[in-house]
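Lab notes, practical 5.
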Amino acid sequence: MIVWLNGTHGAGKTTTSALVQQLIPDSQVFDAEKVGETLMDIKPGLPATDNFQHWPPWRPLVVETARHILDYTGGTLVMPMTVLVERYWREISSGLAQHDIPVRHFVLHADQDTLRTRIAGDTVLGPNSPFRLQYLELYAEAARTWLHAEAEVIDTTHLTPAQAAQQIAEAVKR
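Output from the prediction step:
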């Protein structure tokens, strides 16, 4: 099984995924961003884009990588990855379904003010990361039009990452 943690930057996916992994036996964390980083390392380089998810190979490579990891390890993959383009989510989820891999799709949600505060205080990417800030509107649009209807929404506005992880682990165990 895959436990996919979606949501925009600042929602707590990376932190929460590590905590979810500790709560679900036989689970590992696989960050699909690493697939994008691999594509970014191709020389002389793929066509310019502002997001590696726009490169057509990224989506099937995520599916195949996840499938091979699960074939090798079994158990559960916890995947923290923002996917805000509906067509991309459909490609990934249908690809996983073709391999009979069940997906529990969660969206870690927080209101815009909370997200801006978290991004402003980020010590890893630096405060007020332009990259992270540019996705707030895209997230709001996706949440309103399709994303929240496609997932189990966990509102992290007033939750600690540990509380969010507990809610997700309990939902998966049901």
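Observations recorded by the TA: The first helix runs from residue 13 to 23. The mean pLDDT is 95.
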